[in-house]
Specification:
Number of domains: 1
CATH topology: Rossmann fold
Structural class: alpha/beta
Order of helices and strands: HHEHEHEEEEHEEHEEEE
Strand content: 15-25%
CATH superfamily: NagB/RpiA/CoA transferase-like
Radius of gyration: 19 Å
CATH architecture: 3-Layer(aba) Sandwich
Helix content: 25-40%
Strand order of the largest sheet: 1-12-7-4-2-3
Distance between the termini: 50 Å
């Protein structure tokens, strides 16, 4: 075994999944809620308001999505095969090029990626994606436009509700709007470490 292989073997051993999950720290859910952000009764409406506040784009129709992609000239992308009949096929019929196999070697070719979301958090305007439901993680993180497809029943009201619903997926990501950083002189820049446009599409 060469030194490179030995180093990577040690890294893999050190970062492998724990045999048993750590116990979550105790917290009082009653004091963690942002009550002003939870005003209203309809979870999609609450989520949409808070998602918009962090520069996300909530959508509830394919016509809106198609118009947005065409206006931005984002005409070539990837769609989770499970979603192709409901979403990919109508996009293709509208003149967009939609692939159902993500080729890592051609990541620059994909201008949008459409994947399933595990859920959403109304309180924070966050989309939840995990490895159990995301057909290809790079398809959710690499294209400039990511479309996370939601079902109304998977929207959690609060952050504690979302934490209590964690499953066994080894990787869970909360996306609160498009990727952003303010590392350079405190100037906010979006689309640096991931999508520059984060869409939540209610299916």
């Amino acid at each position: 075994m060469d030194s490179r292989s030995a180093i990577f073997e040690k890294i893999e051993s050190a970062t492998s999944a724990l045999k048993a999950r750590a116990v979550y720290p105790r917290y009082d859910p009653a004091v963690l809620h942002s009550k002003p952000k939870l005003a209203g009764d309809d979870l999609w409406a609450i989520f949409s308001r808070n998602f918009t506040a962090v520069n996300g784009r909530p959508m509830d129709s394919l016509e809106t999505l198609i118009g947005f992609l065409k206006d931005g000239k984002r005409l070539h992308g990837y769609c989770d095969p499970v979603l192709f009949d409901a979403i990919g096929a109508p996009l293709a019929a509208a003149g967009l090029t939609v692939e159902t196999t993500y080729d890592r070697d051609r990541y620059d070719d994909y201008e949008f990626g459409i994947t399933r979301a595990t859920g959403a958090i109304a309180e924070s305007g966050s989309v939840i994606i995990d490895d159990d439901l995301t057909s290809h993680r790079l398809a959710a993180l690499s294209p400039w436009v990511h479309v996370a497809v939601l079902e109304r029943g998977t929207i959690h009201r609060t952050i504690p509700d979302a934490i209590s619903a964690f499953g066994e997926s080894p990787n869970i990501i909360w996306c609160t709007g498009p990727s952003k950083t303010a590392d350079v002189e405190g100037i906010l820049i979006e689309g640096v470490h991931g999508p520059g446009e984060q869409i939540a599409l209610l299916l």
